[in-house]
Amino acid sequence: MTSMGDKGSIQTQTKVLSQDSWTQVSCPCCVSKQVEPLVLIQLSDNVQPVTKRWLISLIETSKRHGGAALLAHPGEDECGDVVVVSAPRCTFLKATEDLGLCKKYHNEDMVAFSYHDRDNFSNVDDMQEFLTLAERQYIVKNELDSLQAQKKQRIPGVPEAPGVLEAWENICQKLVRAGVIKDIFPLHDQQRLNDLGRRWYSKKQIWGQPLDAIQSYFGSTVAFYFSFLDFYTWALIPPAFLSLGVMEEDDDGPSVSGHMVQAVFSMLWSTLFIELWKRRSSSLSHRWGTLNLAERFAGPRPGFHGTLGLNPETGRLEPLFPEWQRQLRVGLVSLPLVGLFLGLVVLGMTCFYHGEALVQGFHQDSGSLFSGVLLYMPSIAHIVYTNMLGNVYHAVAMQLTEWENHREESSFQNHHTTKVLLFTFFNNFAVLFHIAFYKQDLPLLRKRLASMLIGNQLVNQCTEVVVPFIVDRFLSAPHKKEQEDDLEMDKLRAQRSLPPYPGLFAEYIELLLQFGYLSLFSCVYPLTAVLLLLNNITEIRGDAYKICKLFRKPFSAPVSNMGVWQTAFEVLGFVSVMSNCWLLLLSPRVQEFCLEGGISGKNIILVAILVEVQYEGGELGLAFMIQDKQDCVRIKREQIEIHSLQKVLSSS
């Protein structure tokens, strides 16, 4: 929830915009003396005034007449290239019900919001208290995205070819393609942002983050990432201390006792970490009111298309697309193409090893300076190949997911993320698995893992700490000083100079790779946890600094957990049991120990399989004993569902 200080920052921000130019709503319950600017629509430089007036009129029109039922402000004047958007109270409340957000009831319980029962909810008359800033901005964006042409029409002031709207075509997408809209982004509230920065990345203490303030300002999507990063960093402390205690090594690697302890601990740790995080996640989603989201009842995502008809679940007129056609596209086209790219990864790895062998043989024969330089060529060629292949694959994965035509935004993101995760996992871990289980060269595996970790940490520290510091202090500082000196500058328009936030995709990929190195191979290189812990201490502050200082504010949809990322971590935790069991078997010390005990040949493999099955069973048992949700959260969710059902029955 927003604090009382938020209203002061709103008053400061709205001084830039004349309150008289905001839309006057006819609904008496929505009349407000002061409107909060939430979202900025950046238009093209040569947009016609008639086009801008038409867009503002469309934004202001009621939903039953094909509009968005929002509030619009023309910015400086009608000829300007910005439109500032807000929303009236009734639009906020109806959207809160559509999203399935839970809010405090009069008895202080978190209950799924109902528009017809709105008077029984706390702070329902004050939108700055009832909804967080991130929720208000997402609702405005969601309403803009849901704009659809009621009939075929022309866009005023736009040439005929790109300016024709077909019936039920998404209006915002059409305006982007026609070059009318450049971008749509939420506005920063500078006073609140500065207060958050002082509590977040500017403080001297290492641990702890203002998660509720992050969720209020940036939304639950961002808050869940930083909560997970904080939880994961804390969880690295036990394996880091353990790794320092088992560092007795020789040329063959860790001692047999250290190797076994590290392997067993990694298996248990990964399971406990995932299960405890799921409990933490459910607790946060209840606290933030996202435990009972109902996305399937919301409108389709902007890119969704199909035959116009009545949705059997919502009863609304919208595009419909058969599920069997989507599954057919996934099974017959998407999966084979993903498999093709994974095959290309294997082909690249095979060519790398083959080229490396050829160059080494040539160098042994000639021993010249030229052949010494050639030794580096296979590695350079492999790096260039994997990077180019990765760029092509990411574009193909996005196009495939668009073509699959998912109705909900979460479904689209989950399918796209799954495609990229498969490729990323294969691209980063295939070499390590090849060295470990095909070559069975643990010293080489340890060296390769150490080089990858240290190299990644150095690159990460440069990109996460050094580069943001240089950009903010030296490159952006002159522009900030100019803005401070020019009191007439439009503070809202000044935000357009910031680049868009790239999202959390790369950040989650980085954490997933970290978790993979730690859970799959740390028994070979125990210092993995120490290196990751040191990196993540600065990672938290670096990521916070970047999102607050260097980018535009991102839109953030309400979410109840990390989505497909949580599943990815669970899969890695399950695979870690198999990996550690077989790495334990391949250790020369362990093999010698088995031979001394009279276990050899196929019996060693049989013992490894039995141990793996036992640990997998233990992992499942541990996961079963640790409930995903705390009892209080589980009871609250059941109460929310019962309360929602009672409201439906009473209204019918």
From TrEMBL:
Membrane-related topology note: Multi-pass membrane protein
Record bears the keyword Ion transport: no
GO annotations of cellular component type: plasma membrane
Subcellular location field: Membrane
Native organism: Oncorhynchus mykiss (Rainbow trout)
Protein name, per record: Anoctamin
Stretches that traverse the bilayer: 217-237, 257-277, 330-355, 367-385, 420-438, 511-534
GO molecular function: chloride channel activity
Sequence similarity: Belongs to the anoctamin family.
Keyword Cell cycle: no
Assigned keywords, A-Z: Membrane, Transmembrane, Transmembrane helix
Domain annotation Anoctamin transmembrane: ranges: 214-639
